[in-house]
Amino acid sequence: MKKFAFLLLPVLLMAFSSEAKIRRVGFFASPIAGTDYSTFALAYTAAGAGDTVLMFPNTTVSGTLSKKLIIIGAGNWLDPNSTPKGNANQQAFPGEANISSLILALGCEGTVIQGFHNGIIYIAASDITIMRNRDITVYISYTNPAATVSNLQVLQNYKVAIANYYTNASSATNMNISNNLIDYFSTAMGNTYSGTISNNVWAYDATQTANAANGGTSTMSGTNSIELGAGAYLLQYNIFAGYSNAVAASSNNYFYFLNTGNSIFNYNLALQAGSGQPQTFGISGTGNSITVIANAANIFNAFPLIGSSSADARYQLKAGSPALTAGLGGTAVGMYAGNYPYKLSTLPSIPSVYLLSSPQGNNPAGSTIQINVSTKGNN
Questions:
Q1: 159 occurs within a structural domain
Q2: C or N: which end of the chain has fewer Cβ atoms within 10 Å?
C-alpha cells in the first residue's frame, strides 16, 4: 500500500501576510524546522507578534498570551455520523483542536482565536476577537485590580457562555457579541459594561435537554435567565426561544431578563410567555415582536425537535418563519442573519481542504497516484 502525507494547508499560506510567520502544531507529516512544533507552548515561545499558529486535530491550546497571535483550529461538528450530527464536506479530516485554559493578558491586543472546541478564555486585554468556536466560556475583564478592556468581539460561536469573573467592579466597553448560539450570558451589577448584542439565538427546551437523540445539552442554551447587570447594551435582532412543556398550549417562554434598566431592545423576536406574563424587552426599544408558543416549531429548521438536522443547521430559519421578517424593514433576525452570519461547523475564516479523492482508488498499480483536492473559502 502506498503511503503519502498530504499537506493540508498549502493554500492557506496565501491568506496571511508575508511578514508574519506561520507555525504549525500537531502536523502529521515530516516536520519542518522553524515551522512545526509538538506543543502549543513550544510554538508560542518561538512565535513573534503577529504570527499565526495553526493547531491540527487532537492538539490543545493553554497558557497565558502576552503577544498578538492568530490561533486557528479546524472547526467543529465535522463528522456527519456523530450524534448529534455534524456537517458533511467541511474538512477532509474531522478531528478537532481544543482550548484548555487561556489567559489573554496585556500585550496580546489584536489576538484572534477561532476554530476550537471546549475551553475557558479569560479576557484581560483589549481588541480581542473570539470567533467560530464551540462550547467556549469567555470571562470578560479578567483583571484584578479592576482595569478597562474594550472592543471585545465574540462572533459566530456555537454555545458560548459569557460572564464576568471577578466580583470587583470592572469595565468592558464597546463589546460586539453577535451571531452566536449563546449558552448563557451573565454580567453582574457594579460593572461598567457596554456594547451590542446582536443576531444571537437563545434556545432552551426543558422537555428535551437531557435527550441526546434530540441534541440534548450540547445543542441548546444552558439556562433560562439573561443577567444584564444594568450594563448599557443594545440588544437587537436576537431570537429568544424558550420551550418548557411539550404541550404548546400550556408552555411558558422560559427566558427572562434581569437588571435591564440601561439596555435598549430593538427588533428582537421571542415566544409568547405563558401564565399571563407577556414577554418584555426592558424599559425602552422598538420593533420587538412576540409569536405564540405554538410557533416554536415554525421558527427554526429543527427546533424543538432536531430530526435529521445537524447540530448547528437546526437553527437555520425555516421557510415561513416569523424570524425571516422580524428585523427592521422586514429583514431576518437570528444567528444566520446580519453582518456576521454564522458559519456551519464554525469553520475558521481561511480556505480549507474539504475533500480528497482518487479516481484510481486507494491502492492502484504503479508508482504514481492521481489525487483530486477540493478546496473552498470560508469567509
A1: yes
A2: N
- Beta strands 256-258 and 112-114 are unpaired
Q: Is residue 12 part of a domain?
A: no
Percent of the chain whose pLDDT exceeds 90: 63
- pLDDT value of position 14: 37
The answer to whether the CB of 306 falls within 8 A of the CB of 215 is yes
Residue 252 pLDDT: 55
| Predicted confidence (pLDDT) per residue in 359-375, tens digit | 766 666 776 777 777 67
The answer to whether residue 366 sits within a structural domain is no
HEC letters along the chain: CCCCCCCCCHHHHHHCCCCCCEEEECCCCCCCCCCEECCHHHHHHHCCCCEEEEECCCCEEEEEECCCEEEECCCCCCCCCCCCECCCCCCCCCCCCEEEEEEECCCCCCCEEECCECCEEEECCCCCEEECCEEEEEEECCCCCCCEEECCEEECCEEEEEEECCCCCCEEEEEEEECCEEEEEECCCCCEEEEEEECCEEEEECCCCCCHHHCHHHHCCCCCEEECCCCEEEEECCEEEEECCCCHHHCCCCCEEECCCCCEEECCEEECCCCCCCCCCCCCEECCEEECHHHHHHHECCCCCCCCCECCHHHCECCCCHHHHCCCCCCCCCCCCCCCCCCHHHCCCCCEEEEEECCCCCCCCCCCCCCEEEEECCC
Write down the pLDDT at residue 209.
63
Residue ranges of the chain whose pLDDT lies below 70:
1-18, 208-210, 245-254, 272-283, 354-357, 360-364, 367, 374
Whether residue 268 lies inside any domain: the answer is yes
- Contact in structure between 239 and 333 (CB atoms under 8 Å): yes
Q: What is the rounded CA–CA span in Å between residue 226 and residue 270?
A: 13
Number of domains observed in the structure of the chain = 1
